[in-house]
Amino acid sequence: MDKKKVLVLNGSPKPVSxxxxxxGAFLKGLNAEDxxxxxxxNVIEKNVQPCRGCFACMHSNEVFCPIEDDMREILSDIxxxxxxxxxxxxxxYAMPSHLxxxxxxxxxxxxxxxxxxxxxxxxxxxKADVKEKKILVISGCGFPNWEGNxxxxxxxxxxxxxxxxxxxxxxxxxxxxxxxAPAADPLRARFTAAGVEFDQTGTLSPQTSGGLEWHMIxxxxxxxxxxxxx
Length: 230
Ligand SMILES: Cc1cc2nc3c(=O)[nH]c(=O)nc-3n(C[C@H](O)[C@H](O)[C@H](O)COP(=O)(O)O)c2cc1C
What we know:
Number of strands: 7
CATH class: Alpha Beta
CATH architecture: 3-Layer(aba) Sandwich
Helix content: 25-40%
Bound molecules: flavin mononucleotide
Largest sheet: 5 strands, parallel
Radius of gyration: 18 Å
Number of helices: 7
Shape: globular
Strand order of the largest sheet: 2-1-3-6-7
Structural class: alpha/beta
Distance between the termini: 54 Å
């Protein structure tokens, strides 16, 4: 039997991403039984130009964009994926601009036809040849937990990805500090357990999601450590 496909869009521009530590732990659980082919695209390495707003894509029945760049390959990987994971650091309360370019450029997956959901949300209808896929968002950030840091991102993700789980993790630079392992390793373990759950259910329970959005150390302690390092 063909393996299912997981596509990770890694939006960190860094060679060693804090957020990808969490995503890697999640993949370990998701693929514990080797059911998936996993492809990771480091978006920063790709040539993805900004959307030109021509709407040629939405007036075509094909998944088509007139811009000839790496987005063609990315679009075909997205269409082939059963699971799509957006993994990125929070930049100015949103996704990094090179990844936002990818998000803008998935417009060819939609028709111009508008659909109104029962909750009032309006979106474009997906093209017929775009199959159902499970989506997950994992975003790390440098601030400690504070109300509001992820609000803008959550609203954008809800509108773009519907009910897909959006996991927002504060203090993620700790994931790459060896001395922080006693605080970071339990979070890694939670991500691995969440990967198992996602494989089994195709989503994450609110309890599981909440347990991942975990500040590893109290905010005051985190701020003191950051400030003492200049
Ligand atoms: C340009 C820029 C903007 C950032 N904006 C935010 C922000 O709005 N909120 C926040 O908590 N952290 C912010 N950060 C910190 C990163 O989210 C943090 O360092 C994260 O751990 C980096 O993850 P990565 O290693 O996966 O790239 C920003 C960092 C950069 C470079």
